[in-house]
């Protein structure tokens, strides 16, 4: 039996819970990286699909970066109520309910799925019950204001801690499962030092 594809948020936040400044700035993320880059390469090898919100994807394009930089075989889906009229190479724009899109995507053969963000699309998938895990890298810096990890709405979502990893530079990786009614109970959590 083929393993179910998971939708995983792999992201960094400031210590006060923001993914970027109000203007989208992420200069506070610029820092020397430890060997292994916080497990990014290891994680990237487990995915073949990236889900983007339009507000996260547009700055990538405006910077001149090509979504193909994430690999020629990586499929990029961008959620937008107003898809562009001109085609965008290496990205498919989606304007359909998450409740129908996510199960269809999971049913396709492939690796896991990276929920890139931002806050709005993460919140929408979470509220639809379509996020399986969060891997959050807490950067030891307060930025005071910004866009939170998840768009603000009244909700209570309990998480199950799978793993914590501390890095020599003070970054802490928190790996959580989002319990689902149709999923087996998660394994016990562990704590490691990188």
What are its keywords?
alpha/beta; Dihydrofolate Reductase, subunit A; 11 strands; 194 residues
Provide a quick synopsis of the model.
With 194 residues, this protein is α/β, with parallel strands linked by helices. It has helices spanning 40-44, 54-62, 98-107, 119-127; strands at residues 7-14, 18-20, 47-53, 75-79, 92-94, 112-117, 133-139, 147-148, 160-166, 172-177, 190-193. It has a domain at 1-6 and 48-137: Dihydrofolate Reductase, subunit A (3-Layer(aba) Sandwich).
Order of helices and strands: EEHEHEEHEHEEEEE
List the strand order in the largest sheet.
Answer: 5-4-3-6-1-7-10-9-11
Overall outline: globular
| Total helical segments | 4
Q: Please mark out the parts with pLDDT under 50 across 5 or more consecutive residues, or reply none.
A: none
Query: How much of the sequence is in beta strands?
Result: 25-35%
Please identify the structural class as seen in this structure. alpha/beta
Instruction: Give the proportion of residues in helices.
Output: 10-25%
Q: For the record, what is the CATH homologous superfamily label of the domain at 1-6 and 48-137?
A: Dihydrofolate Reductase, subunit A
Largest β sheet strand count, sense and barrel closure: 9 strands, mixed
- Mean pLDDT value: 89
Q: What's the end-to-end separation, in Å? A: 33 Å
Overall radius of gyration:
17 Å
Annotation, overall tally of beta strands: 11
CATH fold-level name of the domain at 1-6 and 48-137: Dihydrofolate Reductase, subunit A
By CATH reckoning, the class of the domain at 1-6 and 48-137 would read Alpha Beta
């Amino acid at each position: 039996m083929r393993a179910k594809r998971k939708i995983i948020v792999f992201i960094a936040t400031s210590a006060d819970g923001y993914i970027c400044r109000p203007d989208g700035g992420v200069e506070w993320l610029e820092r020397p990286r430890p060997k292994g880059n916080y497990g990014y390469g290891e994680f990237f090898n487990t995915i073949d699909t990236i889900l983007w919100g339009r507000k996260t994807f547009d700055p990538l394009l405006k910077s001149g970066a090509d979504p193909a930089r994430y690999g020629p075989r990586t499929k990029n889906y961008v959620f937008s109520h107003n898809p562009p009229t001109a085609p965008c190479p290496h990205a498919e724009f989606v304007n359909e309910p998450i409740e129908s899109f996510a199960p269809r995507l999971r049913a396709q053969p492939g690796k896991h799925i990276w929920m890139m963000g931002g806050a709005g699309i993460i919140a929408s998938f979470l509220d639809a019950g379509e996020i399986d895990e969060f891997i959050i890298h807490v950067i030891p810096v307060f930025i005071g204001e910004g866009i939170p990890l998840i768009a603000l709405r009244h909700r209570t979502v309990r998480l199950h801690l799978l793993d914590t990893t501390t890095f020599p530079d003070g970054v802490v990786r928190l790996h959580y499962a989002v319990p689902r009614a149709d999923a087996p109970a998660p394994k016990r959590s562990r704590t490691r030092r990188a």
